[in-house]
Amino acid sequence: MLAQIEAQTKQKVGIVTDEAEAFEKCDAQDASPLFTTLPRELRDLIWAYATAPYEDPNAKFEETAYYYRPGHTARLKTDTALLLTCRRIWLEANAMPMLQSEQSFYYHRAAPDARNPQWMASLTDHNRHNLGHIRLFCQMFAIEKLEAHAGSLRDFCCLDKSAPALAPQAAFRPRMLQVTIRHTDWWFWESEQPLRLEDHWVKNLLNTPDLRSTHLFKLELETLDYKADQLATIVQRIKGFESECKPTHVIDGKPTATKFVLRGEPEVSTWKGPANIDNRTFDPYFGKKWLKYHVVTLTWELRFPSIPRAFVPSLRLAPRVASDTPPPPTAKASRYLARLRRSTRLRRGPGPLKTFSRGMHAARQSVLVEEQKAAARGESTRRRRFELCMGALKAKQWEARWRDERSLLKFEGTIESQ
After folding, report:
1. 332-383 pLDDT, tens per residue?
2. Where are the domains of the chain?
3. φ, ψ dihedrals at 344, nearest 5°
4. HEC letters along the chain
5. How far apart are CA 318 and CA 320, in angstroms?
6. 182 and 106 Cβ atoms separated by less than 8 Å
7. Residue 406 pLDDT > 60
8. Nearest 5 degrees, angle CA 233-CA 105-CA 148?
9. Span 207-216, pLDDT tens digits
10. Do the beta carbons of residue 194 and residue 230 sit within 8 Å?
11. Contact in structure between 66 and 184 (CB atoms under 8 Å)
12. What pTM was estimated for this model as a whole?
């Protein structure tokens, strides 16, 4: 139904989520002690508990799978039945599922519940605003490609030729980003090669402008128990990493700097899994039934050095300072520029007259092509204006109906033409 309305009106349909704006359209539930006796802080705890993600007991993973590990032994599931009980609860709790959920992206050997760029592109603006925990399970060869320029991390998670393009920068602002390197993600883990980690991609993550609205960045490194000393050497080295301190937000009208700083000591945990990974017997583990894993997690916290007591999550959506470092040209753009440069150079020929004639012919062809494109653009613009005019009339009819029904639906702006 919503798709039909959007097709008729050429406008995007959304829903009112602001409690102050929508409160008059819902029953205050004054007869319920849930709202008249319990304070909002306790209600929020109830909503958070009821919508917290959990491992679905009916969707267990194969224990030998590459993606099987504590916290990921089954599909993650969120129950949202609470949001259907009444409008008042929905207004108070509708952000909870996204705020608490863990959206996992796998860079090879993905779990059945893996997210992808198509999923990211399908999110509403409201869900993107409340994007909570993004977790990247990356093999080394994939994460080492990550660069530090603006948009690099967003594109790493969200860019795909078959997925709709996301709006820039503001579309990717998770509250927490976690990168997990599992035992089977290290270089040549099958042949028991020593652990090695390139520093550049960790520093790129700390310095990318894409994370300067993210409260926490976690790096989880996993290996086998008898390689704990090798991992300790790596952890000791990267413990000293801090991001560059750069002005990234505008607070009280002034550019304000942020930086990532390591929070506390690394956390250490262990777990045990079967030795026949992916139902295969690897030579180093021949004769073993179980493997013992050693996991170290480092956490960096975003801070505003000039506002040491600031509560960062409340400032994460403050206006951003525009990045003055443009991203490098893509391969497609580079090929286009090369063709453009070649087309402007005079080709060698048997004589100046033939060269001039060829140039005039090419110029005429170019003019004709541009005129045809301009005519097509003009026709498209006129058709678009007509559709928007008719859509505006339909939109007014729907708005009048929603007012009469005290509906929370609303229009959020014109749908951009594809």
Report:
1. 556 655 665 555 554 444 455 555 566 666 666 776 777 777 777 777 777 7
2. 1-20+378-418, 101-328
3. -90, -10
4. CHHHHHHHHCEEEEECCCHHHHHHHCCCCCCCHHHHCCCHHHHHHHHHHHCCCEEEEEEECCCCCCCCECCECEEEECCCHHHHCCHHHHHHHCCHHHHHCEEEEEECCCCCCCCCHHHHHCCCHHHHHCCCEEEEEECHHHHCCCCCCCCHHHHHHHCCCCCCCCCCHHHCCCCEEEEEECHHHCCCHHHCCCCCCCHHHHHHHHHCHHHCCCCEEEEEEEEEHHHHHHHHHHHHHHCCCCCCCEEEEEECCEEEEEEEEECCCCEEEEEEEECCHHHCCCHHHCCCCEEEEEEEEEEEEEECCCCCCCCHHHHCCCCECCCCCCCCCCHHHHHHHHHHHHHHCCCCCCCHHHHHHHHHHHHHHHHHHHHHHHHHHHHHHHHHHHHHHHHHHHHHHHHHHHHHHCCCEEEEEECCCC
5. 6
6. no
7. yes
8. 60
9. 999 999 999 9
10. yes
11. yes
12. 0.78
Q: Which region, left, alpha or beta, applies to residue 321 given φ > 0 means left and ψ of -120 to 50 means alpha? A: beta
Place of tokens 């945990």: 269
Find out whether 183 and 169 touch, Cβ atoms under 8 Å: no
What is the chain's alpha carbon radius of gyration, rounded to the nearest angstrom?
27
Q: What is the dihedral of CA 359, 364, 366, 371, to 10 degrees?
A: 160
Q: Which two tokens stand for residue 175?
A: 């509250």
Give me the amino acid identity at 412: E
Residue type, 413: G
Phi, psi at residue 201, to the nearest 5°? -75, -30
At residue 376, the pLDDT reads 76
Query: What residues contact 128, with CB distance under 8 A and at least 6 apart?
Result: 171, 172, 173
